[in-house]
Amino acid sequence: RSSKINHFMNYKLILLRHGESQWNLENRFTGWVDVELAPKGKLEACKAGELLKKLNININHFFSSYQKRAIDTLKLILNTMRIKEDGIIKAWELNERHYGSLTGLNKDEMKKKLGEEKIHIFRRSWDNPPEPLSKNNPYHPLNIEIYKDVPKEKIPDTESLKDTYNRVIPYFKKNIEKKISENVLVSAHGNSIRSLCKFLFDINNEDITKLEIPTGNPLVLKFDENTKLLNAKYLDEERAKDLIKFS
């Protein structure tokens, strides 16, 4: 009987940007730097866990980036849902976009220095990467311990959203897409989630600049048995951002 019931249930992919991080709070470009969750981010993660618990579905697969703000968000969610955290699959391909030479800098200060329009282009455009970050910089991924097992030639000095998309989507197609029928939760970052939304909602290169992803708010995508996307909505409606297609 249970298999018959499951047949009529929609498949779910839940996308989640990590809770507010310490550098979100300080308004700094973070990218591949491995920063902690801020206290508010931990609360956002716990609330996300409560909201997901109310869905009353079995989530069978859990993915996160290599970065602790995404991993810790996912662990707090699983803890809230009373699910063991030993099944988390970590993939550097789901990391945040690399902000190049902007890494670590304050966004408002850079707006004053470079102008609001240029910073908006760097933050939201499709294929305009900032200047590369020096390999000697302590914030360069080559100098961050958690990336020591990532092939050096795969580690970027800077990235556009297009570059981020080109690592996120092949990983998604190979490792996540086929598991949607068993319900999947992905804890990642503003730009890796934007890349997934661009692909799944078929958003064009101009419109993707308008898509913002809120922290710690689960975005639930429902699919039919042919993995055709039916609808998408944020669980915390008060903190939802507009979706390009399913608004």
Distance between the termini: 35 Å
Give the helix level as a range of percent.
Answer: 25-40%
Number of beta-strand segments: 6
Summing up helix and strand content along with how strands pair, one would put the structural category as alpha/beta
Cα gyration radius (Å): 18 Å
Largest beta-sheet details: 6 strands, mixed
Strand content: 5-15%
Give a verbal description of the structure:
This protein is α/β, with parallel strands linked by helices and 247 residues long. The chain is 35% helix and 12% strand. It has eight helices and six strands. It has helices at 2-8, 22-25, 39-55, 68-80, 107-114, 116-124, 161-176, 190-201, and strands spanning 11-17, 61-64, 88-90, 184-188, 219-223, 229-234. It has a six-stranded mixed sheet. The longest helix has 17 residues, at 39-55. The model is unreliable at 1-8 (pLDDT under 50).
